[in-house]
Input
Amino acid sequence: MTKQVLVFQHIWDAPLGLLATFLQKHEIAYHIVDVETEALPDPLTYDALIVLGGSQHANDDARYPYFIEEKRLIASAVTHDLPYLGICLGGQLLALALGGTVKRHTMTEIGFFDIPLTEEGKTDPLYAGLPGFQKVFHWHEDIFDIPQGAIHLAANENTLHQAFRFGHYAYGLQYHIELDPTILNTWFHHTGLKQEIIDNIGIDAYTTLERSLDQLYPTYTEHSRILFENFLRIGGLIP
Output
């Protein structure tokens, strides 16, 4: 029987991107749900759950009431050992669903970063094949604390908690692994998004970062592939 992954998407400019390419490569079906406009299905009828990023603040249930049901479903997925991958906002929602906290960072972290793994991260199967760090892309202004009982997997000088695992199959990442050229082009050249980056890091840093895309993207893509295929392997979706 064909494996099928459920995907919760929070905003138009943070789609599945690269991860769709990798799922297609392995002939894994996926169902994308727009959480702002669609009813959320039960993740337990799928083989894994991926929750993507977004500009929403994970604590703001009043403004984003779908978070209430989403966090309930995430908690249920983890309780039933459904493989879970939370990216940026998806990692924050996992932290909250497990009783952790999410708070505003002291900065907005934007750009490519090499994220060192903790000693636990270096031995976690999610990072098998990576060189002790992962090249990732950041765009976030909130951060999560590690929920009680979770394993701390990655950190850098800006953000102590970059990744964690809960149980055997649930992973929360504070960074993006799904960016393909189309998403990067949107983030860097769509008028509103471009201006938001410039407002946060300045025009000089924006220009430097934009010029670095072609140089850094191949390593980013390869590291994303390694991690995501590890996740699929851990969850039994690929051999």
Observations:
- The helical segments are 18-25, 66-79, 89-97, 119-123, 181-189, 191-201, 203-234.
